[in-house]
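Read as chain and fold; for instance:
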Amino acid sequence: MTFLNPLALLGLAAAAIPILLHILTLRRLRVVEFSTLRFLKELQRSTIRRLRLRQWLLLFLRTLFVVLLALAFSRPALRGAFGFAPRSHSNTTAVIILDDSPSMSVSGEAGEAGTRARVSAQSLVDLFEDGDEVALFRTSSDVPTPTRAFEAVLRDLDDPRSHSRSSTLEDAIRSAARLLSASQNANKEIFVFSDAQASRLSSTPAGSTERLFDERTRAFVRRISTEPVRNVSIEDVRLPDAIREPGRPLTVRIRVRNHGSEPVADHSISLFIEGTRAAQRGIDLAAGTAAEVEVIVQPKRPGFLRGVVELEDDALAFDDRRAFTCFIPDRLHLLLVGTTESLRYLRLALETRLSDSVRPVILDQAAPERISSTLTPATQTVVLSNVGALDPSAQRALAAHLERGGGILIFPGPGSNAPGTLPDGVPRIQSIEQIPQGPGLRTEAGFERIDWLHPILKTIFEPNTGTGSRATERRTIPLPNIRTFARINARENAIPVMSFTGGIPFLVESRVRVGRVLVFTAGAMRAWSDFPLSPLFAPLVRQSAAYVSGDHADEQPVLVGEPATMRLRQATSATVRVIDPLGAETIVAVTRLGETAVVTLPSTDIPGIYAVVRDHSVLGQVAVVMDPRESFLESASDEDLEALFQKLGLPAERLTVTSEASDLARIVREARFGVELWQWFLIAALVVGVMETLIARNSRRAMAELETNRYI
């Protein structure tokens, strides 16, 4: 047993007071002999013996009453997990983990979850004493250094700020474990104030148990309950893989989820481009379901565009808005590599203006040995026709081009199967083969397999109606007279877009680094086939060059708080300006990743669009969005929490999970020192006091009778 208020034990000295009073008030009866009353002596002796017994019993009860009262004020407790040592000799290092993620902004009848968490944490600070150390750790920030200035901790808890960053509870616990591992104090405690979202519980799969905590560590999880709310969230906004050109419609796919327990009807979805509403739709969703809406808009200009999707207001505001970004080039800059003869039909096809809406084409031409000096960051697509072996500088230049997100279009020729032609990862031309010519040997049936939904072909052909399958539709397209073709060594990342009858690839797509590569197996020269003269040649070449010209990597969003590195599409100066969604500007240095200029954003703590600007030109944009998992408010079970802490090395017997209705201070004290017994000692003292009163009353009555009998 230990005592939480050991100074009160000094009150045990008061137990001597009843004894002293008993000694001082003892009276000896004077003996007076009366011959006529001798027959009463025996009766008096019996009465006096009973009185003396009651007096000794009263002395015991009065002394016991004082002892029990002193023990109650000293707050005795059964031995806890931290041993018999008095509290004043066992300092504690505590980490308070305060969940300030977006899900803690849920409000109910009891108030906002984040506010209730802060109030509950404030009541905990009173438990710490001189010598203890406390670190208040918000899940959106780094773990601070422990402090003994409890007033500063309370002031920090008064700050109602919340954060858009989402993190798992496991990550927060791991950070707390690293801090506690450096502490030399005898006791170590973790206090978690969170809604314990099941979707944001763990960051690593279940596996072997780690030992992040020693035997002196105990954890307390205070669940902050959230009430079911009516909420519809934006889970994702995607721009399908497509060719971006001025005047061409832009398709936006929006995935929306109903998290509520009731269906919603005609829920409004608005899409804004450059701050102007471009489209609005309504959607019906059953309870707990998700659906995708496809919206087609017409951008008014090329360049970097800012887009926002918004939902009508509901219980949670943080998931009703999601930004996206898009880049539409105003021109197509190509570098043609090969001989004049091998590039003749390609140049004619690329110079042909297919429609007024298609962007102008800038054509540069270079011999294979001059690739490294001609290829610039402004080049979007490199077209190689009948290119043989390349020197190392040319290979490095093409590899850097792919790292910048550029594309390569390859047409084979007699020298294309030479070793060392292209950078690693690009499909290799394995051999050049002849197709026997003669009656019955030409494949007149056309192509056997065509991916009609591929962005290149969607703009050339209208797909068959009544089918939603991809790459399974059969349609006859007259095949040019192919006399010679290249058999390629298709890699795992190579996807056939079009194939001859018999399964021989005609057009293959491959992703290399962040760029795209398209390989035709039929050459662009009359000596190999009639393909350059077919009606398919010009639109297929033009759309292929446009398709690989942009990788759209900058259209991929970044989660709030995650690091973001942006590749610049143009060569730039040593520094640029980064403008955050609130308009604040930061000067950032431009670094090099290989041959690519990159900028690392200094912070992504605010959802919205971040722009990289030089002078008045936008060099790049990236959308920073909220983690959609924050919208799933279901709480993890106690068993899930125990499994998480056990995975990190804290057994279940040293973990306490409590609700808001429980007395956290009492639970912590009992976990530290055991169950407090002061209530029982106080009840025992009251019982003893009542017994003393009853016995004392009877004793006074008996004493009065004895005194009366003495004088009869």
User: Anything to note?
Assistant: The first helix runs from residue 16 to 24.
